[in-house]
Amino acid sequence: MTSRHMATYPVIFVKGAKACPICEEDTISDRLVHGGKNVYLCNRRLLHRSHPYRKKMKPFNGKQELRNPPKILSGKEVYEKVKNIENNFGKPYKRSDGTLYKKRFIFLDLPYWKHLSVRHCIDVMHVEKNVCESLIDTLLNIPGKTKDGVKARQDMAAQNIRPELAPQIRGSRTYLPPACYTLSRNEKISVCECLHGVKVTQGYSSNIRNLVSMKDLKLVGLKSHDCHTLIQQLLPVALRGVLPNHVRGAIIRLCYFFNAIFSKVVDSDTLNTLQRDVITTMCELEMFFPPSFFDIMQHLVVHLVREIKICGPVFLRNMYPFERYMKPLAAYVRNQNRPEGCMIQGYIAEEALQFVNEYMSNVEPIGLPTSRHEGRLQEQGTLGKKVVTANSETLDQAHLYILQHMVDVHPCLEKHQTLLSAQNPSKGERWLAMEHNRLFRKWFSNEVDNELVLEREKVSDEVRWLAHGPSFHVLTYQGYDVNGYSFYTKDQDDRSTMQNSGVALMAMSMSVASAKDTRPAYDAQPYFGVIKEIWELDYVQFRIPVFRCMWVEHNKGVRVDRMGFTLVDFSREEYKSEPFIMANQARQIFYIKDPADEKWSIVLHGKKQFVGKEAMDEVDDELPPFSSGLPPTATDDVDDFYLRDDHEERL
């Protein structure tokens, strides 16, 4: 912005006391004397007027919050501010006469600017990265990076905030009392061991254990996507069993918020609730963490829901694709004096080759990169191909499961069930279901043989070969790609740095309400297990892949805790007579040992590896690891939220 326009038009602040691009001149900040930085402790004014946090004094800054929320500028007001601002962009270069010339861009007075409601989108990726790094550095007390040092405590003492946490000088040393967010050495070891032991699915993220330094008890070399994975999925798991409940609950709710706004499907009816929840969460963090923790990135979190309402879901405007594309753009550069021209020339050349390749679709492309995910949506075995002779009992279990899930066989299934009910009217549904499973394979084979004799043209080839049954010689694999997932067997997982053997299935289950009410009822239930074997059953004309799994008993081996985590107990194995599922029914998950109780493992959902537009077609694949109904933090009945007396002070 030129000096002439700075004198004439209002200044749009981008740093310092008025750093928020949404609040602008209405931004409220404090300057820390010892820390030498601006902090933004104004979250309470975003609450509704009757919220109890507005009247609390001791947990915050010793004052009640009576100020109104910041006024958000309308599109017309934004337009009036920027309509005549002149900006100079670009790199100056010499003209032929030796003078410097700089390209110039001027905002034009066009009608569509009057409907502009925001001047730009907040970069959510870097907000998430900075919030994650601040949390991890403060919790693990990383020297030089933590927001809780001697200067932070001195600023708290100067503002008369939580005097019990003030630095204590003893001789030549200064001690910091352990705050409620301070981890002891044993708790740091627990967090780092949990993250070091994580094995995620293929394509989920980088290898997390490479980021954990057990020697120094810290995380090193975090990239943007590593922070994305940590704050949304792994950090809430690693914090289980450490920190007081009120602090841990507030951090987990913040993690849930980021998980919710990055979802591919955002329910517009829940956005107002999500906005209220995140403001309350930031106020609770303000109760526990020092003022130095709340820089501008923490403040911007409260504006993210508003931008979703205006600009749409976050995943559609992420910075990840642009940052990734910088690598191929940098590879185009051959002349360091003209990098922009090299990028343009290289991009146009590749675009032309891409067009020719699509125009001549039957020609093998030369020189064009192919995606490493090419063909991943097709069913194909990938590892450990081998032919084995199957046990007859196990083969019958797999064959029965396939018959029960083939559309062309459904009329025969219904017919057999009707016959059994008519022949045994006094038997209950449970007995009929077991008898149906025992007799159906043989009955189906005889039924198809009779139809082949009487009405051969009405029997499809698929039904005829299904009635014939599969070959005893079964093709097995250690790895299999289907529906965009890469599945491994448990044995292959044990030799791998990834965990691809976890599997989940949503199925109809028959159960009884109680001991008195024995009438069976059917309900959809999730089942969790691991893949033991991968088979391809040979029906001569076609093959059907199935997974033989070890399943966890649903009633006592699966539970959901009060924070919404799903946990499974692998010592409770069940459903040994029904181990098979069809490969295209499997949904990939992975497990992390619960740091609070090693008997249980926490369920987290895997990630599909899509090709092209399929990434946009599948919007129901991801589920958050914890529910939206998280309990509120119980701070009203806690007298000592700030000081921990269960571990040592630190220097």
Write the layout of secondary structure elements.
Elements: H1 3-8, E1 30-31, E2 38-39, H2 75-82, E3 86-88, E4 93-94, E5 100-101, E6 104-106, H3 124-139, H4 150-158, E7 168-170, E8 173-175, H5 185-196, E9 212-213, E10 218-219, H6 224-238, H7 245-261, H8 271-288, H9 296-300, H10 304-311, H11 320-331, H12 339-359, E11 380-383, E12 386-389, H13 392-404, H14 410-423, H15 429-454, H16 461-468, E13 473-477, E14 479-482, E15 485-488, H17 490-494, E16 502-512, E17 520-538, E18 543-552, H18 554-557, E19 558-560, E20 566-568, E21 573-574, E22 580-582, E23 587-593, E24 601-605, H19 614-617
Antiparallel strand pairs: 1-2, 3-6, 4-5, 7-8, 9-10, 11-14, 12-13, 13-17, 14-15, 16-17, 16-23, 17-18, 18-21, 18-22, 19-20, 20-24, 23-24
Helix pairs in contact: 3-6, 5-6, 6-7, 7-8, 8-10, 14-15, 15-16
State the share of residues found in helices, binned by percent: 25-40%
**Average pLDDT, to the nearest integer?**
82
- Give the DSSP E fraction (strand runs of 2 or more residues): 15-25%
* Distance separating the two termini: 47 Å
- Number of distinct helices: 19
Low-confidence stretches: 1-14, 103-119, 611-629
Query: Based on CA inertia axes, which overall geometry fits?
Result: globular
Major sheet details: 11 strands, antiparallel
Number of strands: 24
- Determine Rg (CA atoms, Å): 31 Å
Q: Return the structural class.
A: alpha+beta
